[in-house]
Backbone:
């Protein structure tokens, strides 16, 4: 047992990028990784919520780099990576957390909402992954990429066709990346974490209703953002020969 503990990876002073760090799961992951000794860059469309998190972290806030970025635009993503490279040399761990959902069915949804989900949930994830892996390979680090996906990538909730499709895409991209990394003999690892109901702002935005969100999260005790952050900490800390490929998490009382 002692040998196994000794083999756990220590990421202290290494650099993580957590996308969508202004609230919910992203905010919890940023705090958790900083508490473990990492330096963490994180992005959002507005700086104010990130600056609020940085202030809440107190002295630990010095280990956080807030970046304003619109992940629906490639030039904004590339500018973010340039900013991180200039400050800290590049990314060692990437947590692709940013994502969004619209209740936009296939027979009646708007093209604009479909496009936004595809741009952020799929294309931005691909661009961030490409750029982060370039950093990891340039610095010859055995890095780690973590996709925060969804249980909707394992079954299709009623009325969520396009949103669910984006999460099935993440599931496919996780395996595709694993295969590509193995083909080039890279030590970089890849993990997808697929939660069920987590108490965040997601439900209110998805249903465009605070009342619907309270109903969604009030039926039983749902997952909390810290539960997902703990899973991220677990997977990146495993010994180098251990790749936790997929974690499927549900509240104990969730039926589907």
Residues:
């Amino acid at each position: 047992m002692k040998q196994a503990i000794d083999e756990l990876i220590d990421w202290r002073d290494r650099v993580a990028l957590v996308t969508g760090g202004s609230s919910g799961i992203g905010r919890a992951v940023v705090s958790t990784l900083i508490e473990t000794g990492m330096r963490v860059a994180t992005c959002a469309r507005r700086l104010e919520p990130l600056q609020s998190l940085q202030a809440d972290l107190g002295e630990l806030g010095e280990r956080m780099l807030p970046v304003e970025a619109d992940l629906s635009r490639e030039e904004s993503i590339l500018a973010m990576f340039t900013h991180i490279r200039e400050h800290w040399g590049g990314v060692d761990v990437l947590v692709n957390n940013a994502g969004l959902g619209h209740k936009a069915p296939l027979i009646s949804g708007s093209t604009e909402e479909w496009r936004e989900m595809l741009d952020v949930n799929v294309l931005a994830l691909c661009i961030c992954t490409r750029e982060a892996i370039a950093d990891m390979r340039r610095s010859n680090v055995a890095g780690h990429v973590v996709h925060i996906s969804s249980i909707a990538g394992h079954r299709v909730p009623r009325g969520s066709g396009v949103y669910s499709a984006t999460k099935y895409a993440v599931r496919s991209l996780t395996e595709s990346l694993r295969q590509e990394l193995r083909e080039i003999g890279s030590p970089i690892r890849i993990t997808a974490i697929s939660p069920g109901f987590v108490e965040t702002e997601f439900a209110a935005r998805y249903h465009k209703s605070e009342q619907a969100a309270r109903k969604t999260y009030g039926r039983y005790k749902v997952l909390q953002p810290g539960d997902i952050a703990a899973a991220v900490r677990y997977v990146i800390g495993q010994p180098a020969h251990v790749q936790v490929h997929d974690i499927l998490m549900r509240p104990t009382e969730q039926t589907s």
Observations:
- The domain at 2-249 is CATH 3.40.50.720 (Rossmann fold).
- The longest strand covers residues 189-195.
- The mean pLDDT is 94.
- The first helix runs from residue 2 to 7.
